[in-house]
Amino acid sequence: MNKQYQQLTKDSDKGFTIIEVVLVLAIAGLIFLMVFIALPALQRGQRDAQRKEDVSRISVQLTNYVASTRGAVPSSADGLGNFVRGYLKGTSSTVAGDDYIDPNGNNYVVRYATAPTEIGQVGYYSKAHCDVNNVEDGVSSSNAARDYALTIKLENQNAPYCLDNKS
Q1: pLDDT attached to residue 167
Q2: More confident position, 93 or 7
Q3: Short-list 107, 144, 98, CA closest to 125
Q4: Exposed, middle or buried: residue 85 (CB in 10 Å: 0-12, 13-18, 19+)?
Q5: Beta strand residue intervals within the chain, DSSP E
Q6: Is 134 left (phi over 0), alpha (psi -120 to 50) or beta?
């Protein structure tokens, strides 16, 4: 009898109980759920950071343009088109070249005095500066002829991101 008891206890020590298996699966499921919820937000944040960096690069090119034109900023859609073609190596007067591609894979579209309505559009405003109180387009007019502001729509915020030459 003692032999049978030892044999039974030896066999029952092998493997896991159903409760242990369910508990491990539940914990693993929670970990996967947290990862799948957090991952898209992290990716949106990374894409938005890239967009901000790209707007900064466009601003650097605008600074170069201003230096080469003795202080004049593009003050019309035609002037902006010349800037886009010349400094952003654009394929047209509004579409930036291959060095300026949105994280979604499309070339940036630069528009004069128009708030970006879609991801991948950049708004350019002459005689303007950023205004955090203006939630519509993020800019206010300025009297200084050399002032400009760039805006871009981001995934993680409703108001456009704004960068001006005073930043």
Answers
A1: 61
A2: 93
A3: 144
A4: middle
A5: 109-112, 121-126, 128-130, 139-141, 148-152, 161-164
A6: beta
For CA atoms 97, 100, 105, 110, the dihedral sign is negative
CA 116 to chain centre: 13
**pLDDT mean over 26-53:** 92
Domain boundaries, the chain: 2-164
Length of the chain: 167
pLDDT tens per residue, range 75-129: 999 999 999 999 999 989 999 999 999 999 999 999 999 889 999 999 999 999 9
Q: Hunting for tokens 């901000």 — which residue is that? A: 52
CA distances from 13 to 1, 9, 17, 134 (A): 19, 6, 10, 69
